[in-house]
Amino acid sequence: MKARNEVLVGTVVILALVLVVFGTIWMQGRGLGREEMEVRARFREVGQLMNGNSVKVSGVPIGRVTSIDLDPAAAGVVVTMRVKADVRMPEDPVALLSPESMFGDWQAEIVRRSDFPEYTYSESPDPAVLPGATLPDISRLTAVADRIAQNMATLSDRFEIAFTDETAANIRRAIENIQRVSERLTDIFSSQQQAVEGVAADLQSTAEALGQAVETINRTFAQVETAISGDKLVHIVDRAERASLQIDSLTAGLLQTSRELGAAAVAADTTLKSVGAVADALLSGQGSLGLMLRDSAMYWRIVESNAEIQALLRDLRANPRKYINLRVF
Description:
Layout: H1 2-27, E1 36-43, E2 54-57, E3 60-70, E4 77-84, E5 93-99, E6 106-112, E7 129-134, H2 138-162, H3 165-229, H4 232-283, H5 287-294, H6 296-318, H7 320-323
Parallel strand pairs: 1-7, 2-6, 5-7
Antiparallel strand pairs: 1-4, 2-3, 3-4, 5-6
């Protein structure tokens, strides 16, 4: 009987030890025969996070928190987590700490940074350590709400002080003034509506005129395109080439005429020089003509001789037999 009790006590002790071991392993998030990997994240502070708290991805538990240590290199806290090795981490992962329930339990969730860009994450110089951010728990939210309520009460007191009966009357008068201004603006808009309609009609007429001008331009372009695509352009080019050749020929003739005029001018200049030399000789009394020009008596003798010759010729015409006597045997 005594031996049986000892065996029973030993069995209970062994079972208790096994339960303690398995419980410790479970609390640490370790699984028997399951491959795990270690993930670390850095936070400014960790709130009420404890060893053994759950680690999740998309709300699914994948591991446990194994250690929480101060970062010796910089101000902050480094949290070590053991998670399943076969879990696929999100792109650009970050760690968020937040309350898991209303009873003080916390959790670490690994998410994409782009899913929560509004949070400020604690970066680590080690690229293997994930950036982390801690969300406020209920107590902090309550404290913040209490401060907001106090600020609202202060604002309410100040509003009551500032908003007197006189302020209300001023606001009422301002609203009435705004209403009167609105009515005046409505009247102005109504009076200007006819002018706006006239402008719109003018714009419509202008648009129609522009449309007609565009149609005319399109028809002109079509005619030009037809002329270009047909033989008219070829004829025009041929005529232009013939005209160009005629102009070249005319230019050559003008150049030749210019050369001939130059030669004639040279000849005329030579002739004028000769005439000038003769005139100089006559004026200086050289030669018979020069002597005659310089001697007036000779001029009068020549005049008299010419008169006698004229008289002789008149008498010859009047009496030819007097001077010519022809006899026929």
